[in-house]
Amino acid sequence: GEPSGLLYPQQNRLRNVMDLSGLWEFQLDPREEGQAQGWFSALPAPRQIPVPCSWNDLFDDAKNYLDLAWYLHRVWVPSGWQGQRVFLRVGSANYAARVWVNGTLVTEHQGGHLPFAAEVTRQLAWDRETVIAIAVENKQLVERVPPGPGPGGGGVAGVAGWYPATTYDFFPYAGLHRQVWLYSVPAAAHIDDITTVPAIDGSDGVVTVKVAAAGGYAGTGKVRLDAIEADLQFRSGVAEATLRVPSARLWSPQDPHLYPLTVTLTEGQRVTDAYSLDIGIRTVAVRGDQLLLNGQPIKLTGFGKHEDFPLSGRALNLPMWIRDYELLKWVGANSYRASHYPYAEEAMQLADRMGFLVINEIPAVGLNFENPEELTAQHLAQCQKQLRELIARDKNHPSTIMWCVSNEPMSGPPLGAAPPVPAAVASGTRFFRQMYDEARRLDGTRPVTLVRVQGGTMEWLGIFDVACVNAYYGWYTEPGQLDLAQQALARDLDEVHRTWGKPVIVTEFGTDTLPGTHNQPPEMWTEEYQVEFIRRYLDVAARRPFMVGMHIWNFADFKTGQGTMRAGAMNHKGVFTRDRRPKMAAHFLRERWAGKDGRK
Ligand code: GCB
What we know:
It is an enzyme of class 3 (hydrolase). The protein has 9 helices and 32 strands. The chain is α+β, with helices and mostly antiparallel strands.
C-alpha cells in the first residue's frame, strides 16, 4: 500500500513531538548474536554515539564496518501524552533497520534516506522508562538498491573495485542519519496525509488540497490557505477542497513566497486535530524543448551535491546546510540535484524558503541491466517503494521541480567503451517505463527524468520528460584535450536533442582538482584546468537553446572509498573543498552566474 505517516512531525495544541537526538548507546554486532541475546533490552558493552551521525568517522574499528550495529536509548514518554496515539519515526536509517520498543519488534525498514514510522502506543510504558533499540546494517548486497558489487552491480566504482566495495562513487556511510522522534496524535481521528496541487489560472492561484484522515474518518474539517477557507467533508477517510487565491504571489527563485496552509478536523465548533505547512504556488512543465516555471522558460544553474561532511558523515548537519545555501547564493546557483539519494527534510524546507530548485532523486545509483530478470524484478520493487516514499515525503515542496528515477543505469561498460548489450537495453526499457508510469501515477504535476552515463543508452532518455546526461569529455575521455572535449560534448548534446527533441540538462561535468595545484597552460588536477573545463562546457550550452540546465559535479569535495582514482579517499571534483573553501572555479562561477567580478 501507499506509505502513511510521513508528514513531518509537528508540535501544536493537539499534537506532541519529542526529538530523541543526543547520545545513545551503541555496539557493533559482527557475529549477529544481539537479537538472540536480547540486546534490544540492554547492550552488554555499549559505548556512546551521537544520533544523528554516521558511525564510520567516529571509531577506528567502525571505519569500514558496514555490518550490524545496535543503537539503544531510554526515554520517559511524557505522561501528558496519555490518551493519544504515539508513533516512533526514524528519519533515515542507512540501510536496513529493525526497531524494538520495550522488547517488542515494532517495525523493519529497508533503504536509507527516507523516513518510516510505526505506532508504539501499546508497546511504550507510562510508569517507567521506555527502551528503544534500533539495529542497523549497511551491507552492500546485490539485490538491494543501490546494488552491491557482484554480477548485478554496475557503476564506475564497482568496475574500479574500491574499498569498501560499492557500485557507487561515495563513501558508504552507515547509521542513524537523521532524527529519531516520538510523536503523538489525537486518538479519535487524525490527519494522516495532505497533498497540495497548485495551479495557475490567469493571475489567480488555484490550490487543490487532498486530506487523508486515519481510520476511515467520516467527519468534517476545514482547510485554510492564507485568509481563504473551505470546508472538508470526509468520506472513508478522504476529503478534498479547491481554494482560489486572487492575484497570487507565485513562488519562484526570485520571490520564493510561501503561503501558510492549515488543515483541521472538526466536531462542531471543536477542533480535534490540526496540521500546518507552508506551500508555494507555482507550476512546472515541459513544452517542446523548454522547461517552464510558472509558464516561463527557466535555465538551471547549479551543482550535483552530496550530504557529506567530516565526522558527521552522511548525517543531518544543519550548519552544513545553512552554509551550503549561503554559498549557492554567493556563487549564483539557482538549483541542485539531490544526487544520489533524497536529502534531509530540513534541506527541502530551506530550499522552499530560499527559492532553490531541486531535482529530487531516489537512491537508484549503480543499476546494471545485464542481469537475470529476477534480480531486475527485485530492483524494480525496491525502486518503486523508494519512489513512493520519496513522493509521499516531498510532494508538497515547491522547490522539488522534478523527480529523478536513476543515476547512470548501465547496459554495458560505461563511457562508450563498448556498445550497449541489446538484451540489457530492452530490460532497462521495460524497467524505466514502469518507473516513469509509477512516478506519473503518484504525481502528475512534475516532470520525471533519468540521468544517462556518458556514452550510455540513448533509448532510455526517450521515456522521460527531460533528458539528463552526465559528461566527462576532457576528464575520463579526451584527458587534457579541451578542444576535443568541447567538440565531443557538442556532438553528444546535439545528438540527444536531435533524437528526442526534449529539454536537455548536463547533470554532471567536472574535473578532480587539488586545491592549491596550479599550472599554465592548464593541466588536469589544477585549478586552472577546472576553470577552463567549466568555461568550455558552459559556452557549449549557452549556444544551444534546448540546454535548460548545467549542474557541475560537484558542489564540494566529498569522501569516497579507497582506490587508485581517489586521492586521499576523496572525490576532488568540488568547486568548494570539503570544508567549503572556494577553489578558483567558485570565483569564476560567481562572475559568470552572479555577474559579480570579485572586485565588487
Ligand atoms: C559519475 C557519477 C558520480 C561520480 C562521478 C565521478 O558519473 O554519477 O557519482 O562521482 O561520475 O566523479 O566520477
